[in-house]
Write a structure and sequence with these properties.
The protein has helices spanning about 15-30, 40-50, 50-55, 60-85, 85-90, 95-110, 115-125, 130-150, 165-185, 185-190, 195-210. It has about 220 residues and is an all-alpha fold. Helix 1 packs across helix 2 (about 40-50), helix 6 runs parallel beside helix 9 (about 165-185) and helix 9 packs antiparallel against helix 11 (about 195-210). The mean pLDDT is about 85.
């Protein structure tokens, strides 16, 4: 979380940081069942085992809480993607293994954080607040080139006539399909895929589009 963020009071002591963590975790859990407009500060602090005073000692208001969850998600997500795509991690791995690892990261992250991300998406659409979309776009603008380099190191295995186009468009198809299925409750209820099934099938579809023969590793 950025120390320059104006919407929160950065905790300095260990106990204060732990209280802030409990508040954020409680809010994320509540958002699995409720939308952001239904969430109240009273129920957040009750679930966190703290007080309203402790909440306002760290957050300006409920909007600041959501903003902080937004920033926390992208910091964690970007760190995880960098770890997966670090050259020392994918060197020597097959293109199938790289695709499956990244697909697993996307599916499991967006499944685990679906309450928070659903709230951020809805707020962005209803209020025309572009901050969430900008952070999402900024994250991929920074991280996608690493993914592209990893796959292009296997260019000779890609039979699509335009490997760079296929890598980008195929990844966009994978990412937005996963996000829609995991975040739209109607889709989750009508087609109840497990995360493992989503990872396997989205990886298979991406590799087929690239024209790569899927390996068994």
């Amino acid at each position: 979380m950025s120390k320059e963020s104006a919407h929160i009071q950065q905790p300095q002591q260990t106990r204060s940081r732990e209280t802030m963590k409990l508040i954020l975790e409680a809010a994320a859990q509540i958002l699995e069942e409720k939308n952001f407009e239904e969430l109240t500060i009273a129920e957040v602090v009750q679930k966190a085992g703290t007080s309203v005073g402790a909440f306002y000692g760290r957050f300006k208001d409920k909007e600041a809480l959501l903003q902080t969850l937004d920033e926390q998600f992208f910091e964690t997500f970007e760190a995880a993607v960098r770890a997966v795509l670090a050259p020392q991690n994918w060197a020597g791995k097959s293109i199938s293994a790289i695709v499956r690892e990244v697909t697993s990261l996307v599916v499991n992250t967006y499944s685990r954080e679906k309450g928070v991300l659903r709230s951020l998406n809805l707020k962005s659409r209803l209020t025309r607040d572009a901050s969430f979309k900008k952070r999402e776009q900024s994250a991929w603008a920074d991280l996608y080139p690493q993914f592209q380099r990893a796959l292009l190191s296997h260019r000779d295995e890609i039979s699509h006539p335009d490997p760079k186009l296929a890598i980008r468009l195929g990844f966009q198809q994978l990412f937005y399909t996963a996000r829609e299925i995991l975040h739209r409750e109607a889709l989750r209820e009508d087609v109840p895929y497990t995360n493992e099934q989503l990872v396997a099938e989205l990886s298979r579809a991406y590799l087929a589009y690239l024209g790569v023969k899927e390996s068994e590793e």
